[in-house]
Amino acid sequence: MFRIGVLQNHPRFLKVRENIAEAFSLMEKSRADLWVLPEFFATGYNFKTQKEVSSVAEPISNGMTSGLLSSWAKKNDCAVIAGLPEKWGAKIYNSAVFVTADSVSVYRKTHLFGAEKKFFSPGNTGFWTRSFKGVQVGLMICFDWFFPESARTLSLKGAQIIAHPANLVLPWAPEGMKIRSLENRVFTATANRVGAERGLRYIGSSQITSPKGELLSRLSGTRAGISVIAIDPAKALDKKINKANDLFKDRREKFYV
Ligand code: ACM
What we know:
Layout: E1 2-8, H1 16-27, E2 34-36, H2 50-56, H3 64-76, E3 79-88, E4 91-100, E5 103-108, H4 116-119, E6 129-132, E7 135-139, H5 148-156, E8 161-165, H6 173-184, E9 187-191, E10 194-197, E11 200-203, E12 207-209, E13 215-218, E14 225-231
Parallel strand pairs: 1-2, 2-3, 7-8, 8-9
Antiparallel strand pairs: 1-14, 3-4, 4-5, 6-7, 9-12, 10-11, 12-13
Helix pairs in contact: 5-6
The structure holds acetamide.
Acetamide binds next to loops.
């Protein structure tokens, strides 16, 4: 069995150190093999100026946030996936890191949402997966979910779990992610934040879904918290729907655009 945890926090805008400390104190209440944290979990989201974004954007390779996440992953023998504004030369990406004791990989958000287009460069990493403790994990960030190609690409690349750091403000993702699970036969773990920030209200409801589209856990719409459950990742390797149909083998690619 493999334990997945989702963290649902209420970050204070631009208070990075305090937000990281608070996230760790919530995560210390349980044990997981893989923790998924929200998009921009330590900075807040609703930026109004490029100056604000620049003041909290960090490089991945030697940045404070990646460093603290790496130490935590090492100490707790786990992987952590978490969203942060990434500084890369003159560019800033809406990124998520996949951190283990001895490695850090980065995914840069493919589909930018709303005002993000003013402040962030469109992601250029594409979708990828990597193995941790024998389980293939992929990631996408928040609004990426609205494009079924994101989860489909990750699944075709072998993802058994799709980690989904989010700062959801629209109402549809919690139900929609059940469909992403079902149509790809994968587990998904959406970590969202709660609270209001400069006129935006985040919907919480962080959740974990199964390859059958079942809701395995869902947190509240308003309170910070964690949820950890044990899953059997092998269930995501079975793409058969019945004796005659296999979700991937039955695809008719020549008819798709
Ligand atoms: C979003 O992509 N943060 C809605």
